[in-house]
Amino acid sequence: MDEKTLNKSHKFPRRARLVLFLAVGAIGLTGFYLLGRTYLGGRNTMVINYLRNPAQYSDYEVQALTRCANAPFLLPSKGFIGYLWNDSFKPFNRHQGIDIFAGTDAGKTPVYAPYDGFLTREEGWRSSIIIRIPQDPLNPSQQIWLYMTHMADPEGNSFIDSAFPPGTYDKPVFTGDLLGFQGNYSGDPVRPVGVHLHFSIVRDDGSGNYLNELDIANTLDPTPYFGFELNAKVLGKSEIPRCSP
Ligand SMILES: [Zn+2]
Predict the structure, then answer these.
(1) Pick the CATH number of 33-226 from 2.70.70.10, 2.40.50.140, 3.40.50.300, 1.20.1530.20
(2) 87 C-alpha to center of ligand 1: Å?
(3) How far is ligand 1, taken at its centre, from the CA of residue 195, in Å?
(4) What pLDDT, in 10s, does the model give residues 30-71?
(5) 57-92: string of b/e by CB count within 10 Å (b at 16+)?
C-alpha cells in the first residue's frame, strides 16, 4: 500500500465512526428530551388548553387572597396553577416553585403578599421580589423567603408596584398588600413566557441570606403552606391543583 491508499483506507472508517457517534448521540439526546416532555405531558396539555381559552377552563382557576382550610398563606394571585413544585421541564432539572397562569394579558392580574414579611427588590431586578419571613409559620425556629417573578413585560418594563423600586431592602409588607401584576418577562424579548407568576419558598442560609432559588434543594414544598397538594410527584398528572371543599 502506498501512502495515498493507506490514508484513504483509514479515512472512510473514521468518517463512518464519526457519523455513527453523532447518530447515537442524537438519538440519545432526543430520547432524553422526549422523556422530559412525556413526564409533563398531561399538565402541558392543560396549560395550553387553559391559555388558549381561559373562559372555557375557568373551573381550573384558584382565586387570589383565598385560604385553604387553616393553611398559613393566602394565594398570591388568580389563575390556573399549571406547573407544580418538583415538575420536570427537562432532564436533571426540577421546578422549584409553582406557576400560576393568569389567563389575561400581561399587567392585568394583581399579585398580593401571601403573608406578613419584609420585601426586598435587589438593584437590577425587573420582574422579581423576595419577602423575608423571620419565623416560618410551620417551623418558627427558621427564617424563610417568598420569591415571586415574571412581573414585567417581554422588554423588562416592570409591573411591580411603585412602592417597591429596585434597591428596596427589607420594607414591611402585610398579608394582602398589592405587590404588582403578572407578566411574561423571560429575559429574552423574542421568546416571552406565557403570562404567569412563579412563586417559590426559599430556604435561608442560617445567617439571614436567601439561598439560590434555582436549585430545588434550596426550596420548600409549598403544599403545607397553602393547604392543598402542590408537589408534582404526589398529585396525579391530570389532577387540578386546588383546595378541595
Ligand atoms: Zn416557575
Answers:
(1) 2.70.70.10
(2) 9
(3) 11
(4) 554 444 444 555 689 999 999 999 999 999 999 999 999 999
(5) beebbbebeeebeebbbbbbbbbbbbbbbbbbeeee
